Amino acid sequence: QVQLVESGGGSVQAGGSLRLSCTASGLGYRPGSMGWYRQARGKEREGVAAINTDGTTRYTDSVKGRFTISQDNAKNTLYLQMDNLTPEDTAMYYCAAGWFLLSLRPNQPNHWGQGTQVTVSS
C-alpha cells in the first residue's frame, strides 16, 4: 500500500513561513521524481515544485525565490520550505510521486497524498 502523508500546513499571516513535509512508504521503488501541487478553491490544480532523483528542481514562476523543495532520501521524506507567504498561496497542498514531474503538469503524478491546507491571511 503506497502512502504519501503530508504535514506542516496551517494558518499564517502574510509574510510568514511554513515548512511542509511528506513521508513516503510502500512504494517499493524510488520514483523518478517527487513534487508538490496545490489547488485553491475554485481553481485548477497546479504544479508548485518538483525534484528529480539527481536533485534537479523546478518551480512555478509565482513561487520562485520564496519556496524551496528538498528531499532526505534516508528518511524517505520530501519538504517544501515556504517563505514570504502571500494570500495567493492559500490552497490545499499535495505531495506526489511519479516520473517526469519537473513538467509540473497537474495530472502527471502516479501517487498522491491526502493534502494539507495552507491558509495565508492578509
Topology:
Elements: E1 3-7, E2 10-13, E3 18-25, E4 33-39, E5 46-52, E6 57-59, E7 67-72, E8 77-82, E9 91-98, E10 111-112, E11 116-121
Parallel strand pairs: 2-11
Antiparallel strand pairs: 1-3, 3-8, 4-5, 4-9, 5-6, 7-8, 9-10, 9-11
Plain-language structure description:
The protein is an all-beta fold and 122 residues long. Helices cover 0% and strands 51% of the residues. It is built from no helices and eleven strands. The strands form two sheets. Strands 2, 4, 5, 6, 9, 10 and 11 form a seven-stranded mixed sheet that branches. A four-stranded antiparallel sheet has the order 1-3-8-7, with no helix packed on it.
Which sheet architecture does the biggest sheet show?
A: 7 strands, mixed
Task: Note the gap between the termini.
Answer: 40 Å
> Uncertain spans, ≥5 residues at pLDDT below 50?
none
Strand tally is: 11
Number of helices: 0
Overall morphology: globular
Mean pLDDT: 96
Task: Report a brief summary of the structure.
The termini are far apart. Strands 2, 4, 5, 6, 9, 10 and 11 form a seven-stranded mixed sheet that branches. Strands 1-3-8-7 form a four-stranded antiparallel sheet, with no helix packed on it.
List its traits.
seven-stranded mixed sheet; 122 residues; mainly beta
